[in-house]
């Protein structure tokens, strides 16, 4: 009986790695402006969106259904452009004991960048499906965010 799992995907992006990562490292409250699948975000506990003691509330759409959860920043590694976020409460707790999103933004060194998403989870029982809908959601959100950031950069020029 396997309850723990990990899903990963990597997507090429047009936005420079530093700019894309900045959104998740220090502008998380702006994500809903860049991605239509994120309906609402609010600071639930704490005073700073990026402090490890703060809790955010998210409302989002996966597979055409509205979901909610809470999120805490576990770690932001500026040097390696990597962020780890723990999701809990709401719909997450109905299916998972533990659920983490990890984003790594990679500067390929040849003028291109990529975003690597990892979902680590522990299901509450073996009847629960892996969170494959999350991978589709993260891919679509990445595409939306990338397109929005590229458009912003063009307007700023």
TrEMBL record:
Xref: Gene3D superfamilies: 3.30.530.20
Domain Bet v I/Major latex protein positions: 2-152
Residue intervals passing through the bilayer: none
A biological process from GO: defense response
InterPro entries, sorted: Bet_v_I/MLP, MLP-like, START-like_dom_sf
Coiled coil: none
Family the UniProt entry places it in: Belongs to the MLP family.
PANTHER family in the cross-refs: POLYKETIDE CYCLASE/DEHYDRASE AND LIPID TRANSPORT SUPERFAMILY PROTEIN, POLYKETIDE CYCLASE_DEHYDRASE AND LIPID TRANSPORT SUPERFAMILY PROTEIN
Descriptive protein name: Pathogenesis-related protein bet V I family protein
Organism: Medicago truncatula
UniProt lineage: Eukaryota, Viridiplantae, Streptophyta, Embryophyta, Tracheophyta
């Amino acid at each position: 009986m396997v309850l723990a799992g990990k899903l990963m995907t990597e997507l090429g992006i047009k936005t420079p790695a530093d700019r894309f990562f900045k959104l998740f490292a220090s502008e998380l409250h702006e994500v809903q402006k860049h991605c239509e699948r994120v309906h609402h975000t609010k600071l639930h506990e704490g005073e700073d969106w990026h402090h490890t003691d703060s809790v955010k509330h998210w409302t989002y759409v996966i597979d055409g259904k509205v979901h909610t959860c809470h999120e805490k920043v576990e770690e932001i590694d500026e040097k390696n452009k990597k962020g780890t976020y723990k999701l809990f409460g709401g719909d997450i707790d109905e299916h998972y004991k533990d659920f983490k999103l990890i984003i790594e933004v990679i500067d390929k060194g040849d003028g291109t960048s990529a975003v690597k998403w990892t979902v680590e989870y522990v299901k509450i029982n073996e009847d629960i499906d892996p969170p494959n809908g999350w991978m589709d959601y993260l891919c679509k959100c990445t595409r939306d965010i990338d397109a929005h950031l590229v458009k912003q950069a063009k307007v700023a020029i």
